[in-house]
Amino acid sequence: MVWKTSHYSGWGRVHKAEGRLARPERARHLTQLSKETPAPAIGMCRSYGDACLNDNGDAILMTRLDRILGFDPDTGVLEVEAGAQIGEIAKLFAPKGWLPAVMPGTGFATVGGCIANDVHGKNHHQVGSFGQHVLSLTLLQNGSSKTVTPKNKGLFMATVGGLGQTGVIQSAKIQLLPCNGDVITVTERRMDDLESFLEALDGSRSTYSVGWIDATARGKSLGRGILEEAETAYGLVPTKPKARSVPFDAPGFALAAPIVRAFNGAYFRRIPDSGQTRVKPIGDFFFPLDKINNWNKLYGKRGFHQFQCVLPENQRDTLRSMLEKIANSGLASPLAVLKRMGPGHAGYLSFPMEGYTLAVDFPNKGRAGALLAELEEMTAKAGGRIYFAKDATAKPETVRRMYPELKKWAAIADKADPDGHLETDLTRRLMLRTGT
Amino acid sequence: MNEMWIILGATSSMARAFAKQVSKDGSSVLLCGRDMDDMRASASDCLAHGAPVAEALHFDARETKTFSSIIDRAAKEDGQLHVAVFVGSMPDQSVIDEHPEMIAGVVTDSYTGPATFLQMIAPELEQRGGAQVVGVGSVAGDRGRIGNYVYGSAKAGFHTYLAGLRNRLTRAGGHVVTVKPGFSDTAMTWGLEGMFLVASPEKISADILKAVEKKKDVIYTPFFWRYIMGIITSIPERVFKKMSV
Questions:
Q1: Mind listing the pLDDT tens digit for each residue in A393-429?
Q2: Per the domain annotation, does A426 fall within a domain?
Q3: What is the mean predicted confidence (pLDDT) over B198-213?
Q4: Are residues A156 and A296 both part of a single domain?
Q5: Confidence of residue B193 (pLDDT cuts 50, 70, 90)
Q6: Is the pLDDT of residue A242 over 70?
Q7: Same domain, yes or no: A50 and A93
Q8: Distance between CA atoms of A358 and A356, rounded to whole angstroms?
Q9: For residue A92, what is the nearest residue in chain B, using CA coordinates?
Q10: What range defines the domain where residue A20 resides?
């Protein structure tokens, strides 16, 4: 059978879809699908909202096309099928001294998904976005295969970060970066308030840096958190704890405000005043939540949202008022991240821009919708952006103020897919393909 | 010592998972099947995962003349030779009912083709000693039933052949594992109705390798299919013939 009628959802489980999925295992079957029944390609569905959904339509599941097609140990150039997962690549190549230049927060993300969302990692300030390390990619457009390199400027920039709208990404050549080994030394330091946190992020010279932020802290503790700085290393690997699962949907009170506040306080105080340095397997640092299978079930059946924005450097005040709103809402979960971002990006619809990026999870309940709308508006007003890979709630008009190159992108996507076969629930909701 | 696995039917997802796993363990692989482009991709993948040698070779269960070049290629390698058979074809029983002439093809793909190959390579395996043979059969071979008895009868023949080969190779320090998978999550079963307790190709391949290591003779994978089939085979024929399971 080619098609399987399936129910699937984004990682946040707020948006759901029902539709036919094909799961080709061979390149020629993918080519055939792209020619006869073109449909958007999806991977591990780690996008939080609806970027990976096509409700009442078809989609091509790429997970079985996950092979390594070639690797040059002298240059670190890796050619790989689009369904390959970043975490698997890291696991395989780190002992050999290479890592994907950019790794998102989950190792389950596929290479195709990393390109289509032009993802960033904990080293964005140093190396830029995923697409900047793509040397070429094979794109299937209605059954015909095309090799696209950064020299094919328009099509490349419309494909990287292009949400799968220019064709199906079949494989890619990516440049890996040298690393010291498959362990990482992580130094954690307490940051007592937002101002010192931002100063420390600005001043960090580590290859990798990321901040956990206590999104429930108020007053003079507003914006407190823990700064993690890390460098890969060669040495002993601590034993890895076994993967755990969340076996059922958690009850609503699990993330009630007082519980989260207590948890966050304890998590903050866990780090001694003087800071601490530990050695971890790389996976524990890059993909901390991957060890807990289906952790998204912690939020119960109604699911959750992740708000992620990037704000220009000079918008520290906006960041402060966002954190105030979030802390006062009592909706924040323990999962909140603050990072420095550099200017690097590779596509017309890429998320990254120079500044600070904030990501906070909210259970899908009560005032969450209203809060998200407020935060989105603040982002637009500040000249920032929200991230399509996370978004489930933004409005078409808000997004237009954030992505000035949308029109250029839409024209190229339209040429590549004139009948809109590749549209997803996200592109329809945000009316991205109309461009204007 | 160098080890090499000859994998017949290498384009199936189960075979792919198996090839990847033995590559990680440091074995070489000869991937044999019909879709050369696809197998070349898999061969690259095996090399990246640690196989010292990984090559794609043309194999067609219905063309005996494709067999000897594979055997010649394998004979060039020093060290231990092993064979894993993943070939087979399962057309819908209702299609076979309309085209009875299809039976010969099903039997060739699922039984006589791979059996001929194994028979041809057996002397080489005996001579080297310590050979492992994995033959993937099916729970469908345990009892003929209305839904797919042509495929089932071919696999039943293959099971019996494997038992005989086991008897033969054991004398030469070798071993044969008969594998009976239940429902597996492959292209063959994607979107089929009535599937339950479906196992991933990775799980099945891990079970197979465990059986190889422990020198098990016949395994069901996942294990509970042994009990399901135990029940199904214990139903008296006079009752079973009226059932549709």
A1: 999 999 999 999 999 999 999 999 999 999 999 999 9
A2: no
A3: 96
A4: no
A5: confident
A6: no
A7: no
A8: 7
A9: B49
A10: 3-61
Cis bond upstream, residue A396 (ω within 30): no
What does pTM read for this prediction? 0.94
> Which stretches of B49-200 are DSSP H helices?
67-75, 93-98, 103-107, 113-128, 149-170
CATH number at residue A102: 3.30.465.10
Highest mean pLDDT (candidates A121-125, A232-236, A297-301): A121-125
Which one of A1, A70, A81 has the shortest CB-CB distance to B190? A1
Q: What is the pLDDT of residue A431?
A: 97
Strand partners, A15: none
Of B38, B186, B191, the CB nearest to A27: B38
A17 and A86 inside one domain: no
pLDDT in tens, A156-213: 999 999 999 999 999 999 999 999 998 999 999 999 999 999 999 999 999 999 999 9
Rounded (5°) CA angle B93-B94-B100: 80
Chain A residues within an 8 Å CB radius of B187 = 23-25, 29, 64
Residues of chain B with Cβ-Cβ distance to A92 below 8 Å are 48-49
Nearest CB to B187 within list A25, A28, A67: A25
B38-55 pLDDT tens trace: 999 999 999 999 999 999
In a domain, B245, yes or no: no
A69–B42 C-beta distance less than 8 A? no
Domain that holds residue B149: 3-240
Q: B37 vs A70: CB contact, 8 Å cut-off?
A: no
| Rounded distance between C-alpha atoms, residue A173 and residue B143, angstroms | 49
Residue B196: predicted pLDDT: 80
CATH code where residue B141 lies: 3.40.50.720
Considering only CA atoms, give the Rg of chain B: 18
In the 8-state DSSP scheme, what is residue B173? Answer: T
Residue A92 lies in a domain: yes
Domain CATH for A383: 3.30.70.2520
How many domains does chain A divide into? 3
Tell me the residue length of chain B.
245
Contact A25 B191 (CB under 8 A): no
Cβ atoms of A64 and A23 within 8 Å: the answer is: yes
